[in-house]
Amino acid sequence: MLFLAAPALVILATLRAIGSLAWVPFLAATGALAIAAGILALVWRADLENFAARLDQFELADTPGQPKTRLPLLAPLADAVGRLSQRIADIEARLAERRSTGEAIVEHLPDPVLVLDAEHRLRSANKAAMSAFGDQVAAVLRHPDLRAAMARALAGGASEAAEISLPVPVERTVQATVLAPGRTVPGATVLVLSDRTRERAVERMRADFVANASHELRTPLASLIGFIETLRGPAADDPPAQRNFLGIMAREAARMQRLIDDLLSLSRIELVEHQPPSGKVELADLLSGLVPGFAPRLAERRMEMALSVPAGLPQVTADQDQLTQVLHNLIDNAVKYGRDGGRIEIRAEARERDVAITVADDGPGIPRQHLPRLTERFYRVDKGRSRAVGGTGLGLAIVKHIVNRHRGRFTIESTEGEGTTCRVWLRAAGEPEDPSA
């Protein structure tokens, strides 16, 4: 107040000094008016500061409300500010609800979705992305084809797509769609990753089945056709020849059936190879139920089989039917290619976080140069012997793909004249998967 009254007092003192005291009443009234104006200005200033504070609070999403005023003249403005505050609060509430709904939808999408910031660093990933890639998300983002698609999307401001191949832990094909910044989340790049492994596997399965079946079925089919023509012609009235030919035809037909069964089995395995199993299997029960089925063949070749499964062996995470197929193929090979009167040993043992299953025989063994190719489909060390004992050339290929699906390891060791040892490592139930496997 003093800074408003000071000019009037100075003027009053000056006039008194020059003898013009007649102006005193006028100057007193003027001073009072100036003081009243100053008070009014201070009230206005306080109310306007209150309005300004309320407007600042809008940006902070503060609780809406009407600013207080002591002047009736500012009441309409206060009402308008209050209504504006409420409208902004309602809009923010709706935006928050939409944001929450959008995040919930993205989180439950079946396809993996990754959101990257302006520096292409991972901002968020939905549940499907973490389930599909886990710790390998960073490796996915480093893929050169994906980086190139992201660069094109950033430069052109439009969506881009790229099909990428991920070799670890098992080969997968992923269709990546890159949504340029600003098209979905402001300032962020969104990646939608769709697994196309099954579709590509189906395409390969069709091509491989036709190629493999036509190649492997040609020989037994030619034999069947030849014997049928013989039975219709020269052997039509020769019962001993008919019995002999029918026996050969039965064996060739059984071989064709085994081949087709293995081809279909391998195709089914490849379709689900990118999806690791989640079941739990008790190896002691599985092996004890599987081994007795080989007793007749073991007796025929005077072979012994020893099974060793320690008490308390942990369960393994596996598909029981497929694991049964793995062990059956390995034991079947040991019986087929082991020596007469020999011995087969089957062991299961816990090793750190894994369980190792070993099938070993004391047969003639396999030359070292053949070991790297034994799991290739239709690869045979001795084609004549393999066909003679009923092999299709697909057994170890099936084992390899099943073990891959289980994120395990499969090794073959052999020394000529000493025998062959096949070993499978599987993750013990309850142990986390190794992302580097």
Write the layout of secondary structure elements.
Blueprint: H1 2-17, H2 24-59, H3 75-107, E1 113-116, E2 122-125, H4 127-133, H5 137-141, H6 144-156, E3 160-166, E4 172-179, E5 189-195, H7 197-216, H8 218-232, H9 239-271, E6 280-281, H10 283-290, H11 295-300, E7 304-308, E8 316-317, H12 320-337, E9 343-351, E10 354-361, H13 383-388, H14 395-405, E11 409-415, E12 419-427
Helix pairs in contact: 1-2, 2-3, 7-9, 8-9, 9-14, 12-14
Written account of the structure:
The strands form three sheets. The chain has a five-stranded antiparallel beta sheet with strand order 2-1-5-4-3, sandwiched between helices. A five-stranded mixed beta sheet has the order 7-9-10-12-11. It folds into four domains: 2-104, no CATH class; 109-195, 2-Layer Sandwich (Beta-Lactamase), CATH 3.30.450.20; 197-275, Signal transduction histidine kinase, dimerisation/phosphotransfer (DHp) domain (Helix Hairpins), CATH 1.10.287; 276-437, 2-Layer Sandwich (Heat Shock Protein 90), CATH 3.30.565.10. The protein is of the alpha+beta class and 437 residues long. The model is unreliable at 1-5 (pLDDT under 50). α2 packs parallel to α3 and α12 (320-337) runs antiparallel to α14. The longest helix is centred in the N-terminal third of the chain and has 36 residues, at 24-59. The protein contains 14 helices and twelve strands. Helices cover 52% and strands 16% of the residues. It is elongated and about 150 Å long.
